[in-house]
TrEMBL record:
Listed name of the protein: AraC family transcriptional regulator
GO molecular function list: DNA-binding transcription factor activity; sequence-specific DNA binding
Residue intervals passing through the bilayer: none
Domain HTH araC/xylS-type: 196-297
Native source organism of the sequence: Flavobacterium sufflavum
Length: 298
């Protein structure tokens, strides 16, 4: 049976790794030479964690997928997430680690903007893969954080630490944008599959049984996390996945309204609306006409 570990404090994690706690709310260290996390364990994080892997680092199960982490891979964990650890017998930790408690960023600019870093909710197979130059930038920022933690805490410490974490995360946003671009062929394939899934959904009786489709539904069909899927669609098309779903709904609604053998309520139900008035509001918002007005105009 897997060991279950709940990590709520920085000191708990540091003790597992056999390292000294320099600050109660943040830890930055080189994993090389530290203790292994308990094998065959499930770790429930109450902390933010960022790992830069160096070399082959065994196997982690994160979300629905296993991933063999190679050099230059970054993994992001948010409070509330679970990491499963299943390492080979001769596994030795390497790479860099940054963990910080949510209390560290409360009341800071970073704390207010934390939700924009959607990659904390990506699946393991959506990890960030860095070039050598990108790795060096990240390593330099880790070094600055390590230096700051080695100094005596003063009134400037918190702002300097949180500003450097924010800078690190903003670089990761840039590097993810680059990764979306360099994987254009894969992204195009996902877009094509998304369009096919949209068509199949509305050509079937699924809307009547399940209602309006969600972004999460299509992400799950494509074996992606909702955040990664949404970010990919927005980067590729300039529109959100939800906007794509709504545009498909409007196009289908315009076509079906010409079928005068069906009432507006019937059409709304066929498209997945539970209440016709919700369909009427959406249609008017997007076309400027109610469904009946549009039918009469045409």
């Amino acid at each position: 049976m897997d060991t279950i570990i709940k990590l709520e404090k920085i000191d708990q994690y540091n003790k597992l790794k056999g390292i000294e706690t320099q600050h109660p709310l943040i830890s930055v260290f080189d994993n090389t030479g530290t203790e292994n996390l308990p094998n065959n364990s499930r770790i429930h994080f109450g902390l933010y964690a960022i790992f830069l892997k160096a070399g082959h680092c065994g196997e982690l199960r994160y979300g629905r997928n296993n991933y063999d982490y190679d050099e230059g891979t970054m993994v992001f964990v948010a409070p509330g997430q679970v990491l499963e650890v299943n390492n080979v017998d001769n596994y030795k930790p390497t790479g860099l680690a940054l963990l910080f408690h949510p209390d560290l960023i409360k009341g800071t600019t970073l704390g207010k903007q934390m939700s924009q870093y959607s990659f904390f909710s990506y699946e393991s197979n959506e990890a960030l893969h860095l070039s050598l130059k990108e790795q060096q930038i990240i390593k330099d920022l880790f070094s600055k954080l390590e230096y700051e933690l080695s100094q005596s805490i003063d009134k400037h410490s918190k702002s300097i630490i949180t500003n450097n974490i924010e800078l690190l995360l903003n670089y990761c946003v840039r590097f993810y944008d680059r990764q979306f671009v360099t994987r254009e062929n894969i992204n195009t394939d996902i877009l094509s599959k998304f369009e096919n899934l949209l068509n199949d959904y509305f050509l079937s009786e699924t809307p009547q049984n399940m209602g309006l489709p969600s972004v999460g539904y299509f992400a799950d069909c494509l074996h992606l996390s909702p955040n990664y899927f949404g970010d990919l669609i927005k980067k590729e098309t300039g529109k959100t996945a939800q906007e794509h779903i709504q545009l498909k709904l409007i196009d289908l609604a315009k076509e079906r309204i010409f079928d005068t053998g069906k009432s507006v309520s019937q059409i709304a139900f066929e498209l997945g609306f539970k209440y016709p008035q919700h369909f009427n509001r959406m249609f008017k918002k997007n076309t400027g006409y109610t469904p009946n007005e549009y039918r009469n105009l045409n």
